[in-house]
Design brief:
Length: 401
């Protein structure tokens, strides 16, 4: 089931900077030998990428992994300015709706040079940040690296830099600040929950000069990201797989903390509770059923417009639960119909067995009567002979039944 869950990236949506965070273990699905890499060619298309596992120690790749890597149909991601926009989940050659609202002077200007200048500066700043994500990108340092004549409008470069920083497209994660935070805080914020989202939000707002307090109910941080340790055994309880590196902020975070990513083998077998390998046919059957449930849920949402229940929006999880319950109801109804047919057959069998028992008793009685008249070895009169032959005929007829 290696193709069961694949992340989709909308290049035009620049708000979801952490939408493609670490997957919580769903990539342990196995059984498919097909490559699951369909790299995005253009920034506006949909991507489904290879999964990567996070490990912190160096592992020498085996020959088998090298062979699998050679068989991959993975295409190279865009590079240069186009690649910078792609990795930032932005279209390379056009403005997003948010950019258009923040830069009305450019979006309302129909002249091509101003739009071209904006896109070049934006993509160049993204490229400079992605090339060195461990250090804060200052507008003073970036300005000389923007090629002329695009660096002539210093005010525009500063505005674009501030926009990218404000929306978390640059200077996010764990990096070295070159400009100290202001002593006077601009506001006080309380973040509830120290999961990956809470920590990222707190870190980002702290970079904006806010006084941030994080509240966590448990005695550890990380939320669903947790590692279980017992003796010499270590197991990740969730979020150990990065699903696709293209346009994924986790890729930047891994570089900032020197976290090594290793490609997951395409062949990933499943094991049941007894330690035996789950048959590939069974794995594929479960995958087909899972995809069928997703298709049914999508049909309810898009074709039947069933998105609300009791005035409240229906989540994907709720819709899946309902579809599963309807499926179970259908199976139970078929099961009940089968049980009723079995009961009818049992009643017919019971009737036949009663008839057979009665016939057996009749045959035994006729056989007993026939033997009793046969014991008379002497000469029989015509009435006695008729009685013998009559009982023999009845016995033959009973046996034919």
């Amino acid at each position: 089931m290696s193709r069961r869950k694949k992340s989709k990236i909308d290049a035009g949506d620049m708000e979801d900077n952490f939408a493609m965070a670490v997957d919580d273990g769903d990539a342990s699905d196995g059984g498919s030998d097909k490559a699951k890499v369909e790299k995005q060619i253009s920034p506006g298309s949909t991507q489904a990428s290879t999964d990567y596992i996070i490990i912190s120690n160096n592992v020498t790749p085996t020959k088998e992994k090298e062979e699998e890597g050679e068989q991959d149909s993975e295409q190279d991601d865009p590079t240069g300015l186009e690649g910078a926009a792609f990795q930032s989940r932005l279209p390379f050659d056009k403005m997003t709706a948010t950019e258009a609202s923040c830069f009305p002077d450019i979006s309302n200007d129909m002249s091509t040079p101003s739009l071209k200048e904006f896109l070049h500066i934006r993509n160049r700043l993204l490229q400079l940040w992605l090339e060195s994500p461990k250090e804060q990108l200052l507008v003073e340092a970036a300005l000389p690296q923007v090629e002329p004549p695009y660096n002539s409008d210093v005010a525009l470069v500063t505005r674009i830099h501030s926009y990218l920083e404000r929306h978390g497209l640059i200077n996010f994660g764990i990096f070295k600040r070159l400009k100290p935070l202001p002593i006077k805080k601009q506001g006080r914020v309380i973040v509830i929950g120290a999961g990956i989202a809470g920590l990222a939000a707190a870190q980002q707002m702290q970079q904006f000069g806010m006084d941030v307090v994080v509240l966590e109910a448990r005695d550890r941080v990380g939320g669903r990201i947790a590692t279980f340790r017992k003796s010499n055994y270590i197991a990740d309880l969730g979020a150990m797989v990065v699903t696709g590196l293209g346009g994924n902020p986790v890729n930047v975070l891994s570089k900032q903390i020197n976290m090594e990513l290793h490609k997951i083998r395409q062949k990933c077998p499943l094991y049941d509770s007894s330690g035996k390998t789950v048959p590939k046919e069974k794995d594929e059957m479960v995958e087909r059923e899972f995809n069928r449930l997703l298709e049914a849920t999508s049909y309810l949402s898009h074709m039947l417009d069933f998105n609300y229940s009791g005035g409240k929006p229906v989540s994907l999880g709720q819709a899946l639960e309902w579809v599963i319950k309807l499926q179970e109801k259908n199976v139970k109804e078929k099961q009940m119909a089968h049980y009723k047919s079995v009961i009818n057959l049992q009643e017919r069998l019971k009737t036949n067995q009663n008839k057979m028992i009665a016939l057996k008793d009749t045959i035994a009685e006729l056989s007993k009567q026939y033997k009793s008249v046969q014991e008379n070895k002497g000469t029989r009169n015509i009435a006695q002979e008729f009685s013998v032959r009559y009982k023999l005929r009845d016995l033959h007829n009973a046996c034919k039944v």
